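[audit] Reproducing an earlier prediction to check determinism. Same input, same settings, fresh worker. If the tokens differ from the archived copy the diff job will pick it up downstream; this log only records the rerun itself.
[audit] input (391 residues):
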Amino acid sequence: MPVFKAYLKVIRKNAGLLLMYLGIVLALAVMMNQFNAQRPQLGFSETQVPMAFFNDDSQADSTIVQGLRDYLQEHAKMVDVSDDPEAIRDALFFAEIAYVIRVPAGFADGFGQDETVRIERLSAPDSSASAYMDMRVNQYLNTARLFRIGMPTASDGTIVQLARENLRISTPVELESDVIRAGSYDNIVLFYNYLAYALLAMLILGITTCMLTFGNLDLKRRNLSSPLSIRSLNLQLIAGGLVFGLFSWGSLVLLSLALYGRDMLTQTGLFLVMNAFVYMLVGLSLSFLVGHLLKSRNAQAAVSNVLTLGMSFISGVFVPQDILGKTVLAIARFTPSYWFVKANVAIGSQVTLNGQTFQDVLFSVLIQMLFAIGLLCVSWIVILNRRQKAS
């Protein structure tokens, strides 16, 4: 198979340029991993709000007040601040504290009675910590007041103990979601979205380089005068293109396996790989058409950049489809990259593909296959027109 071997030699000669795109995808994947590793994980964790606590009550050792302080210490960080209005304002301004409580005079005597003595509270403007700490203060005071009303003869120590025990009761909460999942799946989806750019660039440059080489007039005349039949020549060229396409696709898949390991050995990883395989077929068809339309190497790089970067920017490869405008998305629907990215996002949005999500993925894959068939048909029309003009 001399033509097939020559095809591979042409590919090897341009291996440096093709490997550059593998390096681009690798660099993007590493940056994505580092960026997402620095993002806070999903879930809820209580933070310690810095606060100051002042007690102006004559009963400084009041059990109720001390119980409030002890309770707040479990949910906040007590900061020593001078009991001076200017010092308190400065501490709030420079974020040394986020919340201030001042227990007024007569609070212990009036607690639980008909008369109401309110605790003074101060916080930075529009502070979320203020609402959080207000909730904690109200929880403690309301619970203790209910026990005081219900048990009028009980001691303050008993009231505080019962209130604290009641406030310790909590309901275990478990967050489950089929859409947002922990692990590396978000990174994998982004990796395969970027694959649309790298894979298409590799295929266009590789296939068009070989087609321009074998389309050289002197080489074409030499092949036609050889005992090799045209059918065998074309079959070997097709085989070379398929091998190159499989190699490009396989290289990127192996790169994803090296980066994400066992996360790729899941249903999500399998469907992403299959979707990339279909997109590889689209890339081969598009490259075949571009190769027949190009007449010189001077336009090769320009056409490749316009196609790959243009489709990537409008289809959601570099910019998520969720934030693209309606007009841009309407145009992007006429590109295979849009449906490739759409399928990737749908695959990565579910733990297991079923129901409507599976139908969406299947529809996007079928659209890509139609693109591949349509591009091949256009290429065949171009070939027939050239033959008619030549004859």
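[audit] rerun output stored. Observation attached for the diff report: Residues 355-390 form the longest helix (36 residues).
[audit] end
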